[in-house]
Amino acid sequence: MVTRILVVDDFSLNNELIKNILTPKGYEVTCAENGQEALDKVFNDPPDLILLDVMMPGMDGYEVCRRIRQNPSLPYCSSRPLDLKLINNYSILSFNNIVDLSEY
Q1: Distance separating alpha carbons of residues 82 and 70, to the nearest angstrom
Q2: What is the CATH number of the domain that holds 80?
Q3: Which residues constitute the domain of residue 82?
Q4: Which string of b and e fits 32-57 if b means at least 16 CB within 10 Å?
Q5: Counted domains in the chain
Q6: Per-residue pLDDT tens digits for 3-50
Q7: pLDDT at residue 103 above 60?
Q8: How far apart are alpha carbons 57 and 29 in whole angstroms?
Q9: How far is CA 94 from CA 16, 34, 62, in A?
Q10: Full DSSP string of 13-71
C-alpha cells in the first residue's frame, strides 16, 4: 500500500519541491495551498501523513490542525497523546526513517 502524503504550504514552489522529492521515493503526494483547501482534502480523503506549514495567510496551520483534531470521524483523533512528527530545518522526523530534504 502506498503512503499518501498531503503537503500544505501557501508557497507553491515549496509544495512542488517536496512533491518532486517524495514522489520518486514511492509516496503519493497531493498538495494544498491554503488551510481551507487542506481541510477539504483531509475531510474527503484523509492522507496517511500531513506536512503542514504553520505560517499561512487566512487560516494558519495551527487552526487547520485544531479543526482536524476536533473531527472525531478522522483517523487523526486519539484518546492518547498524539504521536509527533517534527519538521525542523527541512528534516522530516518519523518513527521509521528520517528524510533530510537539505540533501536535495
Answers
A1: 13
A2: 3.40.50.2300
A3: 4-103
A4: bbbbebbbebbeeebbebbbbbeebe
A5: 1
A6: 899 999 999 999 999 999 999 999 999 999 999 999 999 999 999 888
A7: no
A8: 22
A9: 21, 24, 20
A10: HHHHHHHHHHGGGT-EEEEESSHHHHHHHHHHS--SEEEE-S--SSS-HHHHHHHHHH-
